[in-house]
Each structure stands twice: as structure tokens, then as C-alpha cells.
Amino acid sequence: MLPFPRARRHLAALFLAAALAVVPAAAAHASAAPSSGWNDYHCKPSAAHPRPVVLVHGTFGNSVDNWLGLAPYLQARGYCVFSLDYGQLPGVPVFNGLGPIDKSAGQLSAFVDQVLAATGAAKADLVGHSQGGMMPRYYLKFLGGAAKVNALVGIAPDNHGTTLSGLANLLPYFPGAADLLSAATPGLADQVAGSAFITKLNAGGDTVPGVHYTVIATQDDEVVTPWRTQYLSGSDVHNVLLQDLCPVDLSEHVAIGTIDRIAFHEVADALDPAHATATTCASVFS
């Protein structure tokens, strides 16, 4: 038992600090993507790339900073690219993805409808990092998203929750800590392995029919742990380990989704499998 009640508050702060330690400092306000960049609602998908791509940031991320690498990469390949902010907490700017994940999935649903209406496309493709690779599965499974989404590509997604390198396993030893975490940052509590949200999400199977799933993981992930829990099971699932593509790639949880062009190449392959090329260490130059 904790020696004094205030220590419970410190434990919640420890969880926040541990997560923040692996999130790059925000470089821009997340109200909208750069006007000269993506989120161009005049963009019309081409015959080569007929579906818009919706990028879904991770916990503590936002619609700009999470995608300063991948959004231009996909734009240069002819995709209409969009990104949203979700899971905002009152009084907490820039750092999003902290609200209840089922509510965040509702925000994603509304955003996808907005993108489809603007582009005239029948379906979108979703690419998400961390929570952003897992949260859309709630949209697909419970909010009718499967009819509007062709593919979901998850980069280091916490599909079965996380122990946060074992830190989450300490919660039962601190009475009240789980309740405090849930009240202060429900989006974090929902991602703990074994949470009610994770249990509901995966009950009855990981996937839904009609959607193509890809998971790109790194064995050096220190946030979504154990890293193999990122993988999905299902008939239309492609699970890939970054180090199987390039053994010398040392990207961890943040880098794989923000700056790793080897992972980006695999994302492009997943979005256009008919024209996929082998992803190797040389893909960093592609």
C-alpha cells in the first residue's frame, strides 16, 4: 500500500511522464495541417489512387506533428491525404488522443464522412500510428466503418493493449491508481492490457470482413509491449516486422511512425498492393 495518498497522484504522473518521454516535442499547433500541404479538400483521387488516405495520429500526437514525414511522402506519390485531431481533453492543447477511445472513434467516423463527401470517393484508406492504428478498429467494428474503409494500416498499433514495458503491471499494487488514471486520462486507461475497452474491442475476433489489415511493428518498441501483441489474427491480415524488412533498422515506437522511410515504403505497398515493390534497407532512398 502507498505510504501516503498523494503518492497515487504521483503514479498517474509517472504514467504520463513515461509516455511523454517517447513523444517528440510539438513543433506546430494542431488546429489544421499546413495550408500548402495535406488536408486539401479540393483534392480529387486519381484513377491510380482512387481512395483518399486518412492519417490517424497516436496518443499525445496531433494532426500535424505526427505526419510531417509520412503525409508529404504519400502526397508525392499522388495520394489525397487528410489527417484529423481526436481525443482532445479540455485545457490540454496540442497533445491529443487522451479522451475515451470509443468517443475518439466517433470523431474518426465523422471525419471520414467529411473526407468522402469532399472527394467523392466511395471508400477511404486509414493509416494510423500507435493508438491511431488501433482506435480505427472500433470504428470498423462498432460504428459502421467497414462499409466506408478499404484498408487499415497500423504502424506500431497497440491492438491488444500494452504493459508499457511492465509499468502497467504495477497498477494493482496501488489502490485507486487505475481509477485516477481513468478519470484523468481515459484514453491512456483504455490502452492498458486487459482494460474493458481492449476486451470489448477484441471479443469475437480481431478483424471484420471486407477490410484489408496491415500491421507494421518494430522489435525495439518500448511503448507497445510486448511488441508481438501488435499483430492481428484474421483471414485478411498482413503482419510484418520492420527488422525482417531491414535487419539494421533500429527505429523504436516513435521513429517508426514519424521518420522511418522503410516503414513508409511498406505503408505505400499496403495502400497499393497491385504495384508493390519489395521493402528493403534501400527503401530509405526511395
Keywords:
six-stranded parallel beta sheet, 11 helices, 32% helix, 6 strands, alpha/beta
What does it look like?
- By secondary structure, the chain is an alpha/beta fold.
- The protein contains eleven helices and six strands.
- The protein has a six-stranded parallel beta sheet with strand order 2-1-3-4-5-6, with helices on both faces.
- Strand 1, helix 2 and strand 2 form a beta-alpha-beta unit.
- Helix 1 packs across helix 6 and helix 3 crosses helix 5.
- The termini are far apart.
- The N terminus is likely disordered.
Q: How do the strands and helices of this protein lay out in sequence?
A:
Blueprint lengths: L5 H15 L32 E4 L13 H6 L5 E4 L16 H19 L4 E6 L1 H4 L1 H7 L6 E7 L21 H8 L1 H4 L6 H7 L9 E6 L19 E5 H4 L7 H6 L2 H11 L15
Parallel strand pairs: 1-2, 1-3, 3-4, 4-5, 5-6
Helix pairs in contact: 1-6, 3-5
Radius of gyration: 18 Å
Structural class label: alpha/beta
Number of strands: 6
Poorly predicted parts: 1-31
- Helix count, per DSSP? 11
Query: Secondary-structure element order, as H and E?
Result: HEHEHEHHEHHHEEHHH
**Biggest sheet details:** 6 strands, parallel
Average pLDDT: 87
Categorize the overall geometry. Answer: globular
Major sheet: arrangement of strands: 2-1-3-4-5-6
Strand content: 5-15%
What's the short story on this structure?
The chain has 286 residues and is α/β, with parallel strands linked by helices. The protein has helices at 6-20, 70-75, 101-119, 131-134, 136-142, 177-184, 186-189, 196-202, 242-245, 253-258, 261-271, and strands at residues 53-56, 81-84, 124-129, 149-155, 212-217, 237-241.
